[in-house]
Design brief:
Layout (H helix, E strand, L loop, with lengths): L1 H6 L18 H39 L2 H47 L1 H4 L1 H20 L3 H30 L4 H5 L12 H26 L5 H32 L2 H6 L6 H25 L5 H29 L16 H31 L6
Helix pairs in contact: 2-3, 2-6, 2-8, 2-12, 3-5, 3-6, 3-9, 5-6, 6-8, 8-9, 8-12, 9-11, 11-12
């Protein structure tokens, strides 16, 4: 039976679409999925990139005797648990939408990965609590041990990124499922875009972390003037270097896609492709503005203009991510929902939208409290 289905071009491991259909319009889910993913990325990138950058800055400040850099590192580390918490919270909506629209691919990829997927919770808990341990070690002056603990945090979060990257590619490559299922190829997807996609995620997280650090220098009043200037300058340098590398990795990632998908990314009839193209242009043009900001770190636009540009890049890349997924899966027979599959559940949609607005307002209020507490405190002289 299996060989007959494979000969007919069908994969017996792909479950059928939900017979109850979609509870809302297709355009709504294709809008909410990249929107919630972009929101998730803001915090997730600092959790991942911060676990890499903070120990590096801490080591530089420690070995170089730079008190202002140590001050910046301590402030950034205190934000890490908040970012991790918001990463988890905002990630729930993303997973829900992926399960609704692409559940038959998402769930199967999870099952094929087995304990690798289940271990995400262990890696997440390890990284979350180790962040608190690193902060405690920093406060007690045990710098070497603190850096070591943060290296463990970075390893845990890089592993989570590795698992999600593998899951995303396996979800797009049902043709590999049989070899994974029978154990002939292992649980890691063999695909040309595996490495550039992973590097694209990691380097992007470092760039966003640099923006967080630069914004910390502009917003907080608990740091000395020297530390605030150092935060802006060092943060923008991190953004500049990461963005430069990201351009090369992005080209590598694009070249690794099939020619049909490459052409689809330049489809001016697809709003997702248009956003992706504009995001790519914004990413390249941001280099000049970031360099200009480094020369004038005391100017407010030195921070806010790169944040606006990179923020738009995040939106464009989220839309492009969805465009790639739709294009690849459209070549799998019966993979995508059609307008005829929509069974609108008005009550559930209304409840979700109201909850989403309340949730976003709550997050904004909490961030405002954090900002207000930083601005009302007295500056500390190192």
């Amino acid at each position: 039976m299996t060989m007959t289905l494979l000969a007919a071009g069908e994969n017996p491991l792909i479950p059928p679409r939900d017979e109850f259909g979609l509870p809302g319009w297709l355009w709504l889910f294709h809008l909410l999925l990249p929107f919630t993913f972009a929101l998730h990325v803001i915090f997730m990138n600092f959790a991942l990139g911060g676990s890499i950058i903070i120990p590096l800055l801490w080591a530089l400040g420690w070995r170089g005797g730079r008190a202002e850099l140590n001050e910046v590192t301590r402030a950034a580390l205190r934000i890490m648990p908040i970012a991790i918490s918001f990463t988890i919270t905002t990630g729930v909506a993303v997973l829900l939408f992926v399960q609704v629209v692409y559940g038959q691919f998402f769930y199967t990829a999870n099952i094929l990965m087995g304990w690798h997927w289940l271990a995400i919770l262990l890696y997440l808990m390890l990284g979350f609590y180790m962040t608190y341990a690193a902060d405690r070690l920093m406060q007690s002056g045990r710098t070497g041990w603190g850096i070591l603990v943060l290296v463990i945090v970075a390893g845990a979060f890089l592993t989570i990124a590795h698992v999600f990257n593998n899951n995303a590619i396996l979800s797009l490559r049902p043709g590999q499922w049989n070899s994974v299922y029978d154990g002939t190829s292992g649980v890691h997807a063999r695909d040309p875009m595996w490495t550039p996609r992973y590097l694209h995620s990691v380097i992007g997280s470092i760039a966003v972390t640099g923006l967080w650090i630069a914004a910390l220098g502009r917003l907080t009043r608990t740091l000395s003037q020297a530390a605030r200037r150092t935060a802006v300058t060092s943060g923008l340098w991190i953004v500049l270097i990461a963005t430069a590398f990201q351009i090369f990795v992005g080209v590598w990632f694009f070249v690794s896609l099939e020619s049909a998908t490459q052409r689809a990314m330049f489809d001016f009839a697809d709003p997702r492709a248009i956003l992706w193209m504009l995001g790519a242009v914004a990413g390249v043009s941001s280099i000049g503005f970031i360099w200009h900001g480094i020369q004038r770190p005391d100017n407010a636009r030195a921070v806010w203009l790169p944040i606006a540009l990179i923020g738009f890049v995040v939106i464009g890349m989220s839309a492009g991510r969805e465009a790639v997924r739709i294009n690849v899966l459209s070549r799998v027979p019966g993979a995508l929902y059609q307008p005829s599959d929509v069974r609108v559940q008005s009550g559930s949609l209304a409840l979700f939208l109201v909850t989403l607005v309340i949730g976003l307002a709550t997050v904004a209020l909490m961030l405002r409290w954090v900002w207000a507490s930083n601005r009302s405190s007295t500056a500390v002289t190192p």
